[in-house]
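PROTEIN DESIGN WORKSHEET
SECTION A - STRUCTURE
LENGTH: 877
TOKENS:
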């Protein structure tokens, strides 16, 4: 009987569980497989997953339910899914709390919402107000709309579905149409009108590394229009060449790349004009721009470094226009100001924008003044002929009716380069002839890559240097080309054709050359080398621990009209590897064999009949490096010796000028001749001593002495007498270097005759640095057989501060009792302006060039122009 009772109870419970359960005035309909009813029917627990339907269109599915009938609150957990059939929402979460009286759902953990427009919202926690149809998401919020192509992340977002508004609280990032990235706070997103806005600061980055920073903004998504205040745009963000533009207010059309703005401040990257210290910038009252042009009204431009005062120079204009198609910057009604003082007015002018490497147009003008040529104005014009060709025409007008036209043509091909500079001067009046002459010059260089497969490199080079007047280069020095064509020596012109071949086993060079000495008269000024060649190779680098090298050279040299000198020279050198003996000596040996094939005509060195000569020299070098270490210093002492034996005679070079010093006295070919070897037997003895500081911070403070002399068994008549190596006992050569400190450095080279009675050579250099004062002294004296020179040079420079400098230089020839020149310069210099006063007095005279005394005022506005004015009338007064 008892078992029948429990059986009936069980089946009633099962039936109760399987039937839908409604509670609290039909508000909830439970569809669960297992339920517990507790607290006198006020607490319901649904177990083993089920579904609850509400009277207001909610369908809630979960693993577990707990319903508090008294408070009318439902808790669900375990893979919760809420379907709002009225508001068209699906919410997923780990756990929810549904307050039925308030119609609010709270979700906790892995919350996700999807509306009927496939908008997805993810967060840690949700608060969903069903009555207002508002969803609030907190912590790690992510919103994605695949239809409208945007993503949004934030710490908190409120989504008003009825009003179609999204509002973020705190830090927010939004990606719109995969084009623009918004980073800011408290952003309002009007979904229906497709607008983003915020009254907080915002950072916007596009796909082209362009950054927009705004204090507040409004963005129209469909039109791609950005409005805001205090706008800062940065191009090439994070890259080396980054430009900035600031506007107090502006409207930017990102789709059309156009804008209109107030109070523009545009800052261009520092290195655009080649000086990293510059801060190029343009300020204005208003500005507009598009893909074609940018216009700034009431503008001011400068490249000078920012400071608290006015810039050293600036250009103020009614309008500055950047033509992006022509890549030009145009100015209208412009004034050039120096420290806010207008000095030049231009109704209109233009120049290429900084992105242009090559564009036709006027280049930087130059104003100059000299006592010989007068005032001058140069206005160069650059012409782009084609992709690989361009031309510069630089006319210069002088106030004394001289006209100079200089032209430079450049062409660069895949395997060749050509550059030519040619100029013409009309109306120059020589101070010697008192007649007006026409002058001209031609400089050219052609490089051709032969690209021969057998060689690592193969090149053909041709260069030309020609002038019509001997002093032309010196007179027009300031106006000549500054390119690679400019001659290094204004007294010697060089013309050549050269072939260079570099192979992995040898090197070969051949060509023809001519030299013109502008200091000489008539035909004696010319020297022709027609032709010459040089060949070198290593025959064997493993021959009994030695290296065998071979060199061959030849030339046909014509000097002084009819002095002909022809030779072919073959050299074989055998150099053994250095080794250290058991006694600690460092030894090395070499043998040099020279074959000279020569022919001369009216030449003092070569005979008029063909000659074949073989000479050789053996050299043995030895030294013993000694080291003594102290607590604070390390001492190095290196006695050394070199034995040279040449059983043959040498060419007669007794009258040649050759200077020997401790730097070259131990060299194999210390006399520097190519067609002969030093004759006789000689023993060179020397010693090097150096004392170094062990403190690494004072490693450059050292004391060093070197001494060397040469001993012979007999006098050699053909060795240059100026070297003194022809004597049985040569001079004693030496040097003393003493870097006492970073403030004082001393270098002294000397030569004493073999009787130790007379210094025949003195070269003294000293540098003294005391705070901002630096002074250098140089004294050189040659006496006896070594020469006849006595000169003194001094330079002093003083730095007042980082902008102000003073320097003085002078040189005096004590043999002639004549000061050669004085140079006194005061200079004010910053990153974009250099102004100076220069006093120059020169006693140099060369035909048209006379001794001069000049007072010059110079002004350089970087990168605009340079002006130099000669105020000699002040000296006269």
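SECTION B - SEQUENCE
RESIDUE ASSIGNMENT:
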């Amino acid at each position: 009987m008892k078992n029948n009772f429990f059986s009936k109870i069980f089946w009633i419970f099962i039936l109760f569980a399987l039937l839908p359960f409604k509670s609290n005035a039909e508000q909830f309909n439970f569809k669960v497989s297992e339920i517990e009813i507790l607290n006198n029917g006020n607490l319901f627990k649904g177990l083993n997953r089920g579904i609850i339907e509400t009277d207001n269109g909610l369908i809630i599915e979960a693993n577990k339910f707990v319903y508090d009938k008294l408070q009318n609150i439902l808790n669900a957990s375990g893979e919760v899914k809420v379907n709002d059939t009225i508001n068209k929402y699906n919410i997923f979460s780990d756990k929810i709390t549904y307050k039925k009286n308030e119609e609010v759902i709270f979700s906790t953990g892995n919350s996700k919402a999807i509306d009927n427009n496939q908008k997805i919202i993810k967060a840690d926690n949700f608060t969903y107000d069903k009555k207002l149809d508002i969803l609030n998401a907190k912590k790690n919020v992510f919103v994605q709309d695949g239809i409208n192509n945007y993503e949004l992340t934030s710490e908190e977002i409120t989504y008003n579905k009825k009003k179609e508004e999204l509002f973020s609280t705190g830090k927010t990032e939004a990606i719109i149409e995969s084009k623009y990235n918004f980073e800011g706070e408290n952003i309002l997103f009007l979904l229906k009108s497709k607008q983003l806005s915020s009254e907080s600061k915002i950072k916007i980055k596009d796909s082209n590394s362009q950054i927009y920073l705004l204090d507040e903004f409004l963005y129209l998504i469909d039109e791609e229009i950005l409005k805001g205040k205090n706008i800062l745009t940065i191009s090439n963000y994070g890259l080396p060449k980054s430009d900035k533009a600031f506007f107090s207010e502006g409207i930017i059309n990102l789709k059309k790349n156009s804008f209109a703005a107030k109070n523009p401040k545009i800052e261009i990257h520092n290195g655009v004009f080649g000086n990293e210290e510059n801060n190029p910038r343009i300020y204005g009252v208003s500005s507009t721009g598009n893909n074609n042009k940018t216009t700034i009204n009431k503008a001011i431009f400068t490249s000078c470094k920012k400071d608290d005062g006015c810039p050293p120079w600036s250009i103020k204009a009614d309008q500055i226009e950047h033509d992006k198609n022509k890549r030009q910057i145009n100015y209208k009604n412009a004034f050039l100001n120096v420290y806010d003082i207008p000095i030049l007015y231009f109704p209109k002018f233009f120049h290429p924008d900084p992105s242009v490497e090559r564009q036709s147009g006027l280049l930087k003008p130059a104003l100059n003044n000299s006592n010989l040529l007068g005032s001058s104005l140069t206005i160069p014009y650059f012409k782009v002929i084609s992709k690989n060709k361009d031309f510069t025409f630089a006319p210069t007008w002088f106030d004394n009716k001289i006209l100079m036209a200089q032209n430079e043509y450049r062409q660069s091909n895949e395997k060749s380069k050509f550059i030519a500079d040619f100029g013409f001067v009309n109306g120059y009046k020589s101070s010697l002839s008192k007649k007006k002459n026409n002058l001209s010059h031609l400089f050219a260089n052609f490089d051709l890559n032969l690209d021969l497969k057998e060689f690592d490199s193969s090149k053909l080079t041709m260069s030309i240097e020609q002038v019509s007047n001997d002093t032309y280069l010196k007179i027009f020095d300031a106006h000549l080309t500054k390119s690679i064509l400019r001659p290094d020596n204004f007294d010697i012109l060089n013309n050549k054709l050269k072939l260079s071949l570099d192979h992995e086993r040898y090197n070969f060079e051949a060509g023809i050359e001519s030299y013109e000495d502008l200091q000489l008269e008539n035909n004696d000024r010319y020297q022709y080398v027609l032709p010459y060649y040089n060949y070198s190779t290593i025959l064997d680098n493993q021959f009994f621990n030695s290296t065998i090298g071979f060199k061959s050279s030849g030339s046909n040299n014509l000097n002084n009209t009819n002095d002909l000198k022809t030779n072919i020279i073959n050299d074989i050198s055998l150099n053994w590897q250095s080794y250290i003996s058991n006694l600690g000596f460092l030894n090395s040996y070499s043998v040099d064999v020279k074959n000279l094939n020569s022919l001369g005509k009216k030449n003092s060195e070569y005979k008029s009949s063909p000659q074949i000569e073989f000479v050789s020299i053996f050299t043995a070098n030895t030294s013993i490096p000694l080291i003594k270490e102290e607590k604070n210093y390390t001492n190095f002492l290196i006695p050394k010796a070199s034995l040279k034996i040449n059983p043959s005679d040498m060419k007669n070079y007794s009258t040649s000028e050759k200077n020997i010093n401790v730097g070259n006295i131990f060299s194999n070919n210390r006399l520097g001749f190519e067609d002969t070897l030093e004759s006789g037997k000689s023993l060179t003895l020397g010693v090097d001593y150096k004392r170094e500081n062990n403190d690494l911070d004072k490693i450059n403070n050292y004391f060093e002495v070197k001494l060397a002399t040469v001993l012979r068994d007999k006098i050699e008549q053909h060795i240059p007498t100026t070297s003194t190596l022809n004597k049985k006992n040569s001079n004693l050569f030496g040097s003393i270097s003493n870097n006492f400190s970073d403030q004082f450095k001393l270098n002294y080279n000397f030569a004493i005759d073999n009787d130790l009675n007379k210094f025949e050579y003195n070269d003294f250099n000293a540098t003294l640095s005391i705070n901002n004062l630096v002074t250098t002294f140089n004294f050189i004296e040659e006496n006896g057989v070594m020469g006849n020179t006595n000169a003194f040079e001094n330079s002093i420079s003083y730095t007042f501060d980082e902008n102000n400098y003073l320097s003085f230089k002078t040189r005096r020839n004590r043999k002639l009792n004549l000061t050669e020149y004085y140079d006194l310069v005061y200079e004010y210099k910053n990153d974009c302006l250099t102004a100076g006063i220069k006093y120059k007095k020169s006693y140099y005279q060369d035909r048209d060039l006379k001794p001069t005394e000049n007072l010059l005022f110079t002004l350089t506005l970087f990168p605009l122009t340079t002006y130099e004015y000669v105020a000699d009338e002040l000296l006269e007064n």
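SECTION C - NOTES
The chain has a mean pLDDT of 87.
The CA atoms of residues 24 and 69 lie 7 Å apart.
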